[in-house]
Amino acid sequence: MSMQGQPLLVTSLIDHAAREHASREIVSRWADGSVTRSTWGEVGKDARRFAAAMTKLGIAKGDRIATLAMNHGHHLVSWYGSAGLGGVLHTVNPRLFDEQLVYIINHAADRVLLFDAMFLPIVERLRDQLPTVEHFILFDAPAQGDYKSYRELIGAEDGRFQWVDLDERDPVGLCYTSGTTGNPKGVLYEHRSNVIHAITEIQPDVFDMSNRSVVLPIVPMFHANSWGIPFAAATVGAKLVFSASNDAQVLCDLIHNEGVTHSAGVPTVWIAMFAHMDKTGIGYGKLARVIIGGSACPRAMIERFMKDDIEVAHAWGMTETSPIGTMGKRPWNWDAMSFDEKVDNVAKQGCPPFGVELRIVDDEDQILPRDGETSGRLQIRGPWIIQRYYRADEDAADEDGWFDTGDVALIHPDGVMQITDRAKDVIKSGGEWISSIELENAALGAPGVQEAAAVGVYHPKWDERPVLLVVKKPGADVSEASITAYLGDKIAKWWLPDEVIFVDALPHTATGKLLKRQLREDYKDYRLKSLAAA
User: Fold this and answer.
1) For 389-405, what is the mean pLDDT?
2) CA–CA distance, 408 with 23 (Å, rounded to integer)
């Protein structure tokens, strides 16, 4: 061998940040409004304390450690500390409804659950249904009863824990995606995949991060690796600003007070922030670059950012892609383009960075041309793309590594990808998936409902909201209110349909399946009554 071969480990990221960027700040704005400050150097030492504390609790290499938490410095420490002991950090989405939370925590066989005090009611409701969880630890509050305190646990350690020996293909993170049918599926990230993803993310045509960057990740840490930002920031020593609240005033104040230059989140958050800016007259401060993902960015939002000299980039990805699949970048002839041409470019989903490959195929898996006109099923492969779901019996990707995303897209000759439809029957509201199939199945249990179909319709704030189309049983006395009330404890509250529309019949395929494509076409221009009345 002519070159050294150190493994690509997440622990190397925190060691680098703690050594080379020790004084760069990590700021946390907590749920109670208080603000605390740490540094990459302190996070590095606390990560070793965390690893030592977990080891004393009996947690060992390969064990799953769950978090039910918002964005803050303690959560960041758990990412790196669990990596250092060889553990797998399972970031749990508190927006899921109880049945899903119980399933994924038990499926992961988590041994520890660290949680924010705001989620104590969830933990109290579910803890008796979580037999594998041996330790419940409060992230942001003193110990109470048999709930331990994060601060007390790591405060008892000296920070000299030695990282365990690891291979770069060892697992380090776990995140579940609800998908469209059946139970949620776990995506198991590896040290190698996360490090390569982090190195890619800092590039100018991706997130464009450096030591001078001050990054406010609005995307939650429980959502698709927080888009990889906590790992990418460590590679360059960027300042991180965390907020446990996505309130528009809180975020705007942090942007100004902390000198935020970069932010990333779903369009819904920016709609609220624009309203706050318009009401108060507050500006953008030093904000220079905004990454929009999770759902399609409205053209009007892109135009507003660009007119205010904010560089906005569209991102596309999935939990299964770690999540960066494509990123909007400025083409070589950007300066020669008109304003409208620039907006057209930004409105598309962008190009894959080095390491990621895309293609589109037809229903017979024949590769389709990249002509900007032909649509097909979007497939992806690369070093941070899923091969197999956690504890699954079969690969999710084919023998050549191609993973079918469930999206329908076209690819332009210059490599720019554009989503045109979704093959899976999901509704994307505020950057989160709502399964139309699960919503329909729940509705079919309501008294008086013979058949139901859920489709997404346009909403200016949430991108899409569900409406439920219902065929009544003959002679049944059923109302919109009765169906909504029935669904109240069957699904997450934000899954509840904005409207229930009663119809005489629903269209079907020759095999008896609901003809969803026709329903989406029929309701593509439907305007919700709540919007029409506004």
Assistant:
1) 97
2) 46
Q: Tokens 């997130």 belong to which residue?
A: 207
Collapsing DSSP to helix, strand or coil, 200 comes out as helix
Q: What is the pLDDT of residues 434-467, one digit of tens each?
A: 877 778 878 888 999 988 999 999 898 888 899 9
Q: How many CB atoms lie within 10 A of CB 41?
A: 17
For the ranges 248-262, 390-404, 477-491, 511-525, which has the lowest average pLDDT?
511-525
Q: Which fold has domain 426-532?
A: GMP Synthetase; Chain A, domain 3 (3.30.300)
Lowest mean pLDDT among 83-92, 172-181, 355-364: 172-181
pLDDT at site 490: 86
User: Hey, what amino acid is at 211?
Assistant: N
Give dist(CA 468, CA 331) in Å, integer: 42
In sign, the C-alpha dihedral spanning 481, 485, 486, 490 is positive
Please tell me the distance from the alpha carbon of residue 269 to that of residue 71, in angstroms, as a whole number.
15
Superfamily of domain 357-422: Luciferase; Domain 3 (2.30.38.10)
The contacts of residue 524 (CB under 8 Å, 6+ apart) are 457, 458
Task: Round to whole Å and give the CA distance between 216 and 444.
Answer: 42
Segment among 412-426, 443-457, 471-485 with least mean pLDDT: 412-426
Side-chain-facing half-sphere of 154: CA atoms under 13 Å: 25
pLDDT tens across 370-396, in order?
Answer: 999 998 899 999 999 999 999 999 999
DSSP assignment of 144-189 equals BTTBEEHHHHHHTS-S-PPPPP--TTSEEEEEEE--SSSS-EEEEE
Closest CA to 322 of 226, 433, 233: 226
Give all strands of the β-sheet with 64-68 in edge-to-edge order.
148-149, 135-138, 112-115, 64-68, 88-91, 171-177, 185-190
- DSSP characters for 61-74? TT-EEEEE--SSHH
Helix, strand or coil for residue 464? strand
- Phi and psi torsions of 201, nearest 5°: -65, -30
Task: Reply yes or no: is the peptide bond before residue 331 cis, omega within 30 of 0.
Answer: no
CA 219 → CA 83, 216, 227, 234, distances in Å?
A: 21, 9, 7, 17
Averaged confidence pLDDT in the chain: 93
Query: What residues pair up with 291 in beta bridges, in sequence order?
Result: 264, 313
Q: What is the largest CA-CA distance in the chain?
A: 81
The residues assigned a catalytic role are 177, 320, 428, 433
* Secondary-structure class of domain 19-346 per CATH: alpha beta
CA distance 463 to 194: 30
Q: Residue ranges of the domains in the chain?
A: 19-346, 357-422, 426-532
Cβ atoms within 10 Å, residue 266: 24
User: Do residues 23 and 11 make contact, with C-beta atoms less than 8 angstroms apart?
Assistant: no
